């Protein structure tokens, strides 16, 4: 069996390596020539050491990066589906392009699997017509289905091997072909959906549920603050109920999935009202974090703030839709090459950003000592292990002020308070 993986981003490259390390001949295709050139040099450019080594093993064995798509028994599409803000939905340009690319090399008997996160109906309503523009009939000549990835950055390899999978095929033969493809590679269970549209819906439902649950926790944090209650203690007590499992509050949600996927469910009927409100709650949390800071230091004028942690969550390198980065942008001028700097009304340089995990070279990250030197306040934007291990006495010796805002619950509040810090939390 041969496989061609279309799209060598984080998930596509990991997926290609999974099959290659299992002994399958895999071609990895990406339209970005720099990605292919880098992989041919043995550089996966991933931040997880275990995954990096795993990909390098694949490159040394059965994974061949290619500037051109190749005919294969199986085509797996793992291309991006960005959020189109103007149209409040998914931009399916890459999926359509990948479909046309696959169609050019598709043969009778081949299997096509879409893994990208897409709105319900994409596999059958958009991809299938593109693939069947020639003489091949979907379901008769070509197997087609949808199976989403559900891995968590930072633990990609383990979850790729162990998570359950959902398979939705256009017919029983497609389901059988796709199940037999993934079953040998995962210790998780393969669940069969009624059709590709159901499988697409389920992936979005999973991420929308998490977004709503986080919004509920954040709402409780806002309410508890008004009552003078420690919300984390209250949530811990509430979770003693056998049917209650409230998540922890935070400065918002980030990454590619949770802030984006709920929008893919919008069908114009107004049925997504709850999802829309949840997104609004979470998107406003960075502003609330700044209000916590303002309450602590009275005025932001002429103050210097260090934002520590601008990845979207703790112990990952991804900065997409990061609440910590949004906090920094709202506070002052943070330069990102692909987006005009935002002016928060402060002087240039009044906000410093540091992150030991972030790999985005477009950001003006500085070392920890530089970030906190002379700072009036510190805001923790991501719960990295490195921040939990910080010595508050050492940080105090470098800062001008004594204000710390920790919406991600990463530091020992009592320990920092003992060192004279005014610690504000959610």
TrEMBL record:
BP term (GO), one: polysaccharide biosynthetic process
Gene Ontology molecular function terms on file: NAD binding; oxidoreductase activity, acting on the CH-CH group of donors, NAD or NADP as acceptor; UDP-N-acetyl-D-mannosamine dehydrogenase activity
Domain UDP-glucose/GDP-mannose dehydrogenase C-terminal: 306-413
Oxidoreductase found in the keyword field: yes
Its EC number(s): 1.1.1.336
Catalytic activity: UDP-N-acetyl-alpha-D-mannosamine + 2 NAD(+) + H2O = UDP-N-acetyl-alpha-D-mannosaminouronate + 2 NADH + 3 H(+)
Pfam families, A to Z: UDPG_MGDP_dh, UDPG_MGDP_dh_C, UDPG_MGDP_dh_N
Superkingdom, taxonomy of origin: Archaea
SUPFAM superfamilies: 6-phosphogluconate dehydrogenase C-terminal domain-like (SSF48179), NAD(P)-binding Rossmann-fold domains (SSF51735), UDP-glucose/GDP-mannose dehydrogenase C-terminal domain (SSF52413)
Record bears the keyword Magnesium: no
Keywords tagged on the record: NAD, Oxidoreductase
Similarity comment: Belongs to the UDP-glucose/GDP-mannose dehydrogenase family.
Protein name stated in the entry: UDP-N-acetyl-D-mannosamine dehydrogenase
The species this protein was found in: Haloarcula rubripromontorii
């Amino acid at each position: 069996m041969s496989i061609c993986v279309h799209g060598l981003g984080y998930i596509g490259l990991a997926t290609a390596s999974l099959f290659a390390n299992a002994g399958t001949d895999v071609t990895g295709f990406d339209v970005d020539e720099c990605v292919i050139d880098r992989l041919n040099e043995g550089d996966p450019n991933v931040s997880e050491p275990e995954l990096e080594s795993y990909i390098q093993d694949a490159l040394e064995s059965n994974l061949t990066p290619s500037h051109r798509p190749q005919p294969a028994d199986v085509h797996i599409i793992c291309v991006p589906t960005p959020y189109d803000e103007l149209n409040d939905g998914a931009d399916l340009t890459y999926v359509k392009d990948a479909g046309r690319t696959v169609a050019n090399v598709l043969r009778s008997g081949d299997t096509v699997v879409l893994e990208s996160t897409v709105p319900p109906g994409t596999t059958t309503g958009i991809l299938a017509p593109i693939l069947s523009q020639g003489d091949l009939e979907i379901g008769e000549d070509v197997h087609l289905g949808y199976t989403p990835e559900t891995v968590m950055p930072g633990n990609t390899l383990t979850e790729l091997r162990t998570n359950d999978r959902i398979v939705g095929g256009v017919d029983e033969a497609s389901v059988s072909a796709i199940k037999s493809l993934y079953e040998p590679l995962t210790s998780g269970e393969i669940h069969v959906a009624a059709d590709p549209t159901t499988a697409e819906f389920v992936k979005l439902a999973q991420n929308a549920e998490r977004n709503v649950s986080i919004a509920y926790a954040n709402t409780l944090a806002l309410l508890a603050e008004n009552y003078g209650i420690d919300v984390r203690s209250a949530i811990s007590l509430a979770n003693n109920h056998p049917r209650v499992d409230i998540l922890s509050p935070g400065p918002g949600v980030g990454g590619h999935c949770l802030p984006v996927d709920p929008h893919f469910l919008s069908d114009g009927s107004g049925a997504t009202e709850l999802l829309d409100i949840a997104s609004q709650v979470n998107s406003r949390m960075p502003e609330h974090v700044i209000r916590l800071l303002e309450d602590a230091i009275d005025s932001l004028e002429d103050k210097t703030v260090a934002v520590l942690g601008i990845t979207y969550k703790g112990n990952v390198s991804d900065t997409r839709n990061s609440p910590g980065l949004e906090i920094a942008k709202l506070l002052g001028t943070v330069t990102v090459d692909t987006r005009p700097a935002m002016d928060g009304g402060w002087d240039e340089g009044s906000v410093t950003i540091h992150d030991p995990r972030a790999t985005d070279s477009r950001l003006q990250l500085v070392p920890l000592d530089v970030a906190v030197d002379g700072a009036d306040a510190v805001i923790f934007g991501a719960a990295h292990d490195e921040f939990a291990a910080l010595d508050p006495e050492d940080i105090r010796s470098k800062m001008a002020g004594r204000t710390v805002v920790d919406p991600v619950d990463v530091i020992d509040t009592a320990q920092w308070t003992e060192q004279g810090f005014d610690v504000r939390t959610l």
